[in-house]
Amino acid sequence: MKNLLFALLIPASVFAADCEVGGISDSPQSMTCEIGQEKTLEKLSLVCDDGSYKISWRGKTFDVTDAYHEDVEEGSSPLVFIAEKLTLRTVSFTSYSSAQLVSDGKGMIGRCFNK
Questions:
Q1: How far from 97 is each of 15, 16, 67, CA to CA, in Å?
Q2: Which stretches does DSSP call E strand in 9-51?
Q3: DSSP assigned state of 24
Q4: What are the tens digits of pLDDT across the range 54-80?
Q5: Residue 36 in 3-state DSSP?
Q6: DSSP-assigned states of every residue in 45-103
Q7: Which CATH number do you get for residue 109?
Q8: Mean per-residue pLDDT for 27-32?
Q9: 29 part of a folded domain
Q10: Percent of the chain with pLDDT over 70
């Protein structure tokens, strides 16, 4: 009975599934990004929702259909998130990630921060 009571007191988020990138589960579970140029920065967010990544951009939410670590010769391995009509590629540094967003064939750059 004590175990059941304890389980009921724990928030449901504790039991939520983590998202994985290429089978690696220590990938960021959420990021906020600023994409574009200084005067025209737009917000983008990447969140893990019940085991699946979702990207919110320009008032729409896109389901990520593929996420993987890109192979590189040197340096940090970029994370790539692919959704319908857009691809987000991030490279982690100490306090932020550089970001490249391709949406409808147009490329934009920016920065992302883990939440």
A1: 28, 25, 16
A2: 30-35, 42-49
A3: B
A4: 999 999 999 999 999 999 898 888 999
A5: coil
A6: EEEEETTEEEEEETTEEEEEEEEEEPP-SSSPPPEEEEETTEEEEEEE-SS-EEEEEEE
A7: 2.40.128
A8: 91
A9: yes
A10: 86
